[in-house]
Batch of 2 targets.
Target 1
Amino acid sequence: MTTSKKSSPPPAQAADIEEGTAFAPKFDSDGLLPVVVTSAATGEVLMLAYMNEQALTRTLETGQAQFWSRSRKRLWRKGEKSGNTMRVVELRTDCDQDALWLSVEMGGAEACCHTGRRSCFYRVLPIGKGTAGVTLTFAEAERLFDPKTVYGHARAAKGTLKTQG
Amino acid sequence: MTTSKKSSPPPAQAADIEEGTAFAPKFDSDGLLPVVVTSAATGEVLMLAYMNEQALTRTLETGQAQFWSRSRKRLWRKGEKSGNTMRVVELRTDCDQDALWLSVEMGGAEACCHTGRRSCFYRVLPIGKGTAGVTLTFAEAERLFDPKTVYGHARAAKGTLKTQG
């Protein structure tokens, strides 16, 4: 390559991708990488979110978690509205560099989920009973904030609100 | 609908999906759901994998983790070749039912990654330094099995092999 035109690097070998120290994120066809977000304090999985290149760059630069909102189709600094920000404690890539693991310290009410709960994974599936008419069990129903107050939209009040009087 | 023809159920309301007890997994356009796999023993993230409907059904029925291999384009019972099976301890769905969290007990060498390591997330990204020429650091280099012996293909020997004499 003798031009200075911006071009993609040549496809890396599997051994380089898996065993090298060069970061070569493999975004999917929508330009996104799935990101597993866990609590640095407890280790629990808080959510699965997605980063595009810009969200990843900003997260790496600022140390504050930013994502790509697939529903709103825009960059999203976690906690920008709710105050439930996420400070990056550690960010890892996986073997084939098509997924990230983000360990965070939460701010605000320490509620990751837009329903007001700490984790987005608050319901459990039964094992050993097949899949016909699977009934979910709530493992975590308590809300740490009221989504109606924070986002201005109501959610069916299945869970109890911690601060509810 | 008066016919007995198999048809999709009507789109569920957000409140039902988020606050209900009916399991209504939202597979992506490729018919897949991302699955965060963690160790029940330590809580660490082992890998991010994908399930199609069949893999999910078999996992729910048998209590042994099965996935859809995107690279091999086939159903994949975890550990079928390596012996590093995964017994389901708990399976959760997230708020909008488009991601799963699977907590497992590993069998065999307790190495989830095909590179022989315990977790697929063995390299760390630096924070606060931007993204130009990002250099990864190995957080976990030790291999619990030799991928060449198990799978018959070599990997660059960056990590040390635990059982290497």
Note: The radius of gyration of chain B is 19 Å.
Target 2
Amino acid sequence: MSDTITNSDLYERVRNEVPSQLDVSNVQYEGPDLVIYTETPQEFAKDGDILGTLAHALRKRITIRPVTGTQSGPSEAEAVIHDVVPDKANIHNLEFHPTTGEVLIEAEKPGLVIGQRGRTIREITQKVGWNPEVVRTPPMESSTVDNVRNYLTQERAERRDFLEDVGEDIHAAPDKDVDWVRVTTLGCCREVGRASFILHTPNTKILVDCGDKPGAEGEVPYLHAPEAMPLPEIDAVVLTHAHLDHSALLPLLFKYGYSGPIYTTEPTRDLMGLLQLDYLDVASKEGRTPPYSSEQVRQAIKHTIPIEYGDVTDIAPDIKLTMHNAGHILGSATAHFHVGSGFHNVVFSGDVHYEPTRLFNGAVNDFPRAETMIMESTYGRKNDFQTDTEKSETRVRRIIRETYEQDGIVVIPAFAVGRSQELMLVLEEAMRLDEIPTMPIYLDGMIREATAIHTAYPEYLRDGLRQRILHEDENPFLAEQFQQVDGGQPMREEIASGDPCIILSTSGMVTGGPIMSWLELLGPESDNTLLFVGYQAEGTLGRRIESGRTEVTLEGQGGRADRLTLDCRIESVSGFSGHADRRGLEQYVEEMNPQPETILCVHGDDRATDELSSALYQKHNIRTHQPKNLETFRFS
Amino acid sequence: MSDTITNSDLYERVRNEVPSQLDVSNVQYEGPDLVIYTETPQEFAKDGDILGTLAHALRKRITIRPVTGTQSGPSEAEAVIHDVVPDKANIHNLEFHPTTGEVLIEAEKPGLVIGQRGRTIREITQKVGWNPEVVRTPPMESSTVDNVRNYLTQERAERRDFLEDVGEDIHAAPDKDVDWVRVTTLGCCREVGRASFILHTPNTKILVDCGDKPGAEGEVPYLHAPEAMPLPEIDAVVLTHAHLDHSALLPLLFKYGYSGPIYTTEPTRDLMGLLQLDYLDVASKEGRTPPYSSEQVRQAIKHTIPIEYGDVTDIAPDIKLTMHNAGHILGSATAHFHVGSGFHNVVFSGDVHYEPTRLFNGAVNDFPRAETMIMESTYGRKNDFQTDTEKSETRVRRIIRETYEQDGIVVIPAFAVGRSQELMLVLEEAMRLDEIPTMPIYLDGMIREATAIHTAYPEYLRDGLRQRILHEDENPFLAEQFQQVDGGQPMREEIASGDPCIILSTSGMVTGGPIMSWLELLGPESDNTLLFVGYQAEGTLGRRIESGRTEVTLEGQGGRADRLTLDCRIESVSGFSGHADRRGLEQYVEEMNPQPETILCVHGDDRATDELSSALYQKHNIRTHQPKNLETFRFS
């Protein structure tokens, strides 16, 4: 049977499923969702099961919208909402959108706005006719979250047109039989960086990730490969997570005429915006011409269609996408593509951490079907074993104590997103339990802002942590020793010449940003410690220092190069990576259900991808490949 | 140093290399060749070494053309030519082309027109100022060769414009550094048929072959793959040989807007025209709509730039092509691509026969460099050993004698091109040596015409055979027992009801053509023999009969299907294949110099490519792949 439905067919299908006493004025696709316009939104809200039954029958996510004119006036509605919702929810903001009949309710405790099994929200609709959309007021103020929300509010009308267009494309009949599925590697093969892949079928072309390569700014994804071109004809973009080696060049697509959707999780959307704007900032500070402007970052955000872990979402006539927790950073996902009607299933692992961490649950490796996997291999080498977390934490605490005892400062280069928050949790606990002396922990660069975004999406954090964040007095990120470096270079100089403290600063691979100042200020002194806690890619200054280089050259102000001799203690503690180590990668595959028939090992250097693919083949008898960039594999 | 030369640069370079007493009026690229226009063609002709020295210094093939007005008048020139050339050369035709200053001399013995080390030809130029182009009058009249030559004469002016355009493209500066080479499989993987590959670099896109799939007419090369599209932007087409599974769909490219060159050998150009026209004919007889018309076949011929075995030819700013004898059929070639300045070398084996046969020398497997090979695997299975030729010939003779003794007729389905001529040589010899009774050998379909083309290009045949053909009284193809079936169905019926004889008829895989009539006439009689001597592809009627099926259905006149029960003797003799057997393929690789680092096993069914690639990997430690269609491999 064909999946095609013209709009009148669609109307008939919906009408047939909806109880006859309920009005269906119109139906419309908006992106992957089905929107039902009704003159009786109250009736739809009465029965909590109607939407579920309907979603199941039509195999779509359903949104109900009141036909304009059937709702109470905003001021009347506002009063009712405040009446129905318990005060403890702490509503911060109400926004009425007459064109869609929606009311945005921002509250500190959105759970209380929604009510048990959606009871409160349904009561609101019944009483006022408006359809509530509930968002959380972040426990820490985040300018990123605010900006994104305000921007999307402002672009609401245009965005709705966009979603209708996307909806039409997704629900069109596929032109051709799906008799092949291909993956083209545009980057990220035998290297770490510039993650970018094309997944294509006879009908559809999907771009998965589009990152830069840290330490090699000229090496961008092969977007001019014929498999990717012309870029405006790409049907959809899927982003696994916000790190720049996966997201940096997404806005470039809009510069080149792409105007389709980006599917990713909501926190990834916000983090991506934060990191991309910083990417532009760093480029301009380093005197490079950024490849795109902030306008294209906004375009990317406007074209993002957020999806939640586990939601099966139509993104093309012949492709369904499901994103699953990947355990790597906030919002990070493994992308599962179901192609055709049971024809083939391709999983892009994205960056994964298989064991749970303080921040996140471990990566999901359980799928209905999965014949092919494109898998990260960052720590794929034979001996890439990280010390276990407990030992790593013990070592970090010891290094901090030792540096403190000799009156030194510990400076930790860290990704703004991911390891910083993990480390904040470690340090906060250690101080709380008196395992290290309590001292200031300075956050430099975007770490505080990134942390605020974490607290805005507690659903994406590990269970216990989520609970603690939702109770302000236990929110570990609000501990008073965390202080933002917001006074620029003078403040840094003051800190550097002051008492023992800990500094967390971006960038994580020492390729730019405030860490360069810290290196200059603290590197030459032997009582300080430079502590690496994350992966240092080839070509980065971090990797060079980690490999023993103590003479380094920094690009100073005005293009002048400063030579610097590092005399501080240099340490690496490996247990804090956001990546599974070799054991974790093997275990991830071993326990994967079902086991894939074919695995492409990517996102690792030459040796890592080689050794991992050999091991998976030999131990698990899985067909493995170690692709090069610019290759195309066919599965089917 | 850049390879670019603007025309004035080029002029300077040529001027510097040419002795100052010789005039250089203009220089121009025509396709891969460099043409020098001069007012003193006589002077250029005086010294046999000038051209060689110049070609070496400029690394180009050089053509000298007199500036218009410097030559004798045609009638005067004609007299001089007849005077200078010995009568034994038997000049059949002289054509003067004032626009290019060339005179086409067609003679029975072109060697005598050329003279020792080109002495005679230079004498002609010195005396008349025209530049002679010498071609052979085929010892057997060939309408194909005639038609192609006449057509090219007629299109001479347009063709010259085309060659100038191609020359500019070839000798432009490459836009980008060559830092990758890719091959995309558009067909011919895990199957025999629809050979078609894209070889691409950052600057250039080459299509190698574009064939159909015998027995599966709907399965054409994946020309709509993004790696191939848009077709008009393909820079050049290279054809390894004329068989339809490599050439059938080339004319389609011109229908889709391609207007660039096809590089192949001269005999392949003529055979390709013959086979493509027959392909159209068969399609229309079978009631299928042919995918293109004869006009596009002419386009393909007009756009062919013939190259000789061993000539290193620039075909793109970053690619040099050299074709080598592949031993498979007349003009068949292995295509060696030298990419970039020493960056990478890719060899497409084409279809190969490694041992010499009666017709051809064995395939060349000696190259300056060769990192990657795309290799045929027709007989790649573990047990695909053919009986040796001597035993095969003995068996054929025995089968013929036995059939003769029981008053039967032997009918042999054969490709018009290749095996038919091999068999003709076997049969002619056997009759001459009285090893089988002398009886008529009827040639049906295009076999006689294809044979005539063979005799037009004796340089492409094995040494001894070439000598015999050039002496009319020894030309084995002119033996009187060879008789053309030129009387249609009545003549076939008469032959079928007559005395013992041998019939060679197309098509070789019993997929159409006159062999269908012979099957109907001779198949039901137990005293006849159906003798297979070539590879029968999956899906063809030949394969079904060979595997024991005796109940067959023939499409009769007017769409009516005739059921037929075969009662004749059915035999297969394997030693006559134009393909190397498993031993030959292994030996070809084993003795290849240098050994390639990577081999892609294609042009064989699933088992053949699998078993050959495993064996080459295990025995020779070469990285091997068994590609699927629609995959892209990167080499570098």
Note: Chain A has three domains: 7-158, 179-383+579-635, 389-572.
